[in-house]
Design goal:
single chain; 323 residues; alpha/beta; Rossmann fold; seven-stranded mixed beta sheet; six-stranded parallel beta sheet; 9 helices; 15 strands; 32% helix; 22% strand
């Protein structure tokens, strides 16, 4: 059996750090079913933001699984990734960016996965109940909450009592409601998050850049019709066959990195808010079509983007290139 040591074990699962926390937890669980996780291995997996990769694990091949969301990598990150023996990227887009700083033949793509508990549910629009648009993410402008606010205010949605917007983040421990907008800042268990996906009718993801885009993939797995910027890591699994892509323009912007110690100006995507609003109206007008698209999305995620598939890819790479 393949032997691997897991060198990262994150405890913090809020805000920007949540992605790395769940990536460590779910991938390690799946790898442990097909490989032995032990300190006497010759290969160590480190799922970390580059700023936390300070020193190389001695006497082991270091596989650094990391990402970033801008087009240019800060110099401290460049210095960090060059210490690793191999890089693992969660998407083709991230690999392409890393190739500017690291040998391409030592970078491999291992997509994130979605857990089996994110089950498919066919939605229904109930009489006398508002149609719910859902946004989920860290309280970080990169996740597109500013775009959502602009769309909701200026497209006239805020005056429509037949619809509502549910914003799920983790920056405060309460739920607030103002007109037809609900803001939920609680840290909730996974099952409550899944229930929230199931309660919604359409998922909004106007991201400015993603290493992968796990919340979008989770929403798709449940059959939720999704509208997203068609840019960065999401393009490995999201397109017009399984969702409603929105165009964008590239421009200078700030990316807050996972440690929140500094910010970096880079090139990011700014989704077209007018097209985004039109896509929302399209979903409202023909929800049966949207549900069919959501069902195709669920099938794609459950067939191709699972933690089990991620683990198999990872173990295969270590068998082929590792110590």
């Amino acid at each position: 059996m393949t032997k691997i040591w897991w060198g990262s074990d994150l405890k913090h699962n809020l805000g920007n750090a949540a992605g790395y926390y769940w990536h460590n937890k779910r991938l390690r669980e799946s790898v442990s079913r097909i490989a032995e996780i032990t300190t006497d291995a010759k290969d160590v997996i480190l799922i970390l933001s580059p700023e936390f990769y300070k020193e190389k694990y001695p006497n082991m091949r270091n596989w650094l699984f990391t990402m970033f969301e801008g087009t240019t990598l800060p110099k401290p990150y460049v210095d960090s990734i060059q210490k690793a023996d191999f890089l693992l990227a969660p998407s083709t887009w991230v690999k392409e960016k890393f190739c500017n700083y690291y040998p391409e033949d030592r970078i491999f793509v291992v997509n994130h996965g979605v857990g089996y508990e994110f089950r498919y549910v066919k939605r229904k629009v109930k009489p006398n109940k508002p149609f719910r648009f859902l946004w989920v993410g860290a309280h970080n402008p990169r996740k597109g909450w500013e775009e959502v606010a602009v769309i909701w205010q200026h497209a006239g949605f805020i005056r429509n009592r037949n619809i509502e917007l549910y914003i799920k983040t983790t920056n405060f421990d309460r739920i607030e409601r103002r007109e037809n907008v609900i803001v939920d800042g609680r840290n909730i268990p996974t099952q409550e998050l899944i229930d929230l996906y199931h309660s919604a009718h359409c998922f909004l993801f106007p991201t400015r850049g993603e290493g992968f885009g796990l919340t979008l993939a989770e929403a798709m797995a449940t059959g939720l019709p999704c509208i997203s910027t068609y840019y960065s890591g999401v393009t490995d699994f999201f397109d017009s066959a399984v969702g409603y892509p929105v165009k964008y323009r590239l421009g200078k912007g700030i990316v807050e990195f996972v440690g929140d110690k500094y910010k970096e100006e880079t090139e990011i995507a700014f989704p077209d808010v007018e097209e985004f609003a039109l896509r929302m109206i399209e979903v409202l007008k023909d929800y049966n079509k949207a549900l069919k698209i959501g069902a195709r999305a669920s099938i794609r995620i459950k067939q191709k983007f699972t933690w089990e598939n991620s683990a198999k890819t990872l173990v295969s790479l270590i068998d082929q290139y590792g110590g």
